[in-house]
Amino acid sequence: MRYRGRFAPSPTGPLHFGSLVAAAGSWLRARSAGGAWLVRIEDIDPPREVPGAARAILDALAAFGMTPDEPPMYQSTRLDAYAAAFERLRAAGHVYPCWCSRAEVAARGGLHRGPCTAPPDPTRAPAWRLRVGETAIAFEDRLQGPQRQLLAEVAGDFVVKRVEGLYAYQLAVVVDDAAQGITEVVRGADLLDSTPRQIHLQRLLGLPTPAYLHLPLALDADGRKLSKSEGALAVDPADPRPALRAALAFLGLAEAAAAGSVAAMLAAAVRDFDLARLPHAQALPAPAGAALPAPLA
Q1: Which structural domain, as residue segments, surrounds residue 129?
Q2: What angle do CA 21, 23, 25 make, to 5 degrees?
């Protein structure tokens, strides 16, 4: 089976260094395997999305020499597929409606273990939660090693359809990974804890489980994950070389980072890419050249 990887950003802002690392890692893994690299825009949370961000992300990727092998997939066009998957779960009795407020769930330690004790409220729609019971999921991450999670202790009965009628990330991502034929998911280690939920959904829906490889997160000087919510600055598509050098160095490819042009750096990085070179930590300080937010006062 030919390798198929993907980069799946949310259009909540421009490409920043942390997301560049994830993009570069997934791109290099696909190219070094002689496979295909796809992009999926995860635009199913309209309140969080920034107008024009999806286009800006795609343009930035192109400036960094990373162009997908197929037209980008937009999750906003896939609602019927998520609805069909949800109905399969509901018909099989795997989900139940929940009228608990966030405050009520927080008061129970942030985890919901069914059945829902809140009385049905005919004036508003419920969220829908997936029953996890005593399910334990074990898998081998290709970078972080063996993982095991008892879903009830980490995730509880998690939401697959929100009160607003939006389908949750966990459901959408497994439906789309299967639809795109993804053979390996390369992404940041902030999603390592989500993987058992996704594997559980894949099994319930009869979908294939890809391999997983979770890259270290890039941290700023205050130890915060570089993210849009923490004020990470956008990388500069007009001069992509400094940020690309930093991203390649972060991925253990310092020699490739010393090449001249973007194309030369990427060619050297594909040549040198090896899982043994990748740092096995779940988080590391971002190197010089990364676009960082201002330190905390």
Answers
A1: 79-138+148-170
A2: 65
